[in-house]
Write a structure and sequence with these properties.
single chain; mainly alpha; Arc Repressor Mutant, subunit A; 2 domains
Length: 194
Amino acid sequence: MEDLPLQALLERVRSGSHDAFRVLFDRLNDRLFAHAYAHTKERESAKDLVQETFIDLWRGVESFSYRSDQEFHGFVFLILKRKLTKYYSERKRAPGSLDQRMEEVGDRDETLAIVPEYEYHRGLMKGFDQLSETSREILSLRNWSDLSFKEIAHVLDISESAAKVRHHRAIGELRDTLIAQGYDRTDNPTAKRI
């Protein structure tokens, strides 16, 4: 069943096959988790969001009319996008949120800052967080979730060429943000390297 084309797999899921849904879960789980984690930066929250996405997918797969693999991926990532929107709105309402506390601790934690990999990741994520919502979304879909430009086009409801252009612009925006923070890819000894 693992080798079934997506359309045939979806037909089995629609008929109530738990085994087919498990195969679908295995195909999508890592990509969805990567996307959710890129936005939440919390492993448990990302896992919860992915789980909720699969619950909604199980309930809604009957209403999905298959036209292409890309359109199906767009459907699934749209469910996750709605979960992320709800997640953000709930976090903004929570006083003294974990994000605020982690930020305060992270700025004082000198032990972790000396580890080069941590510094690299921290700088990259700090730059990522400063990007526009559109740039964060497209970089996450392309680089963390490994979606094709055609799949991204369906998720964002834009053309494939627009997805490519937005991705190119997002990379430039991230590069400019990192350089403005003092991270550089040159051999400048005074610059932090990224």
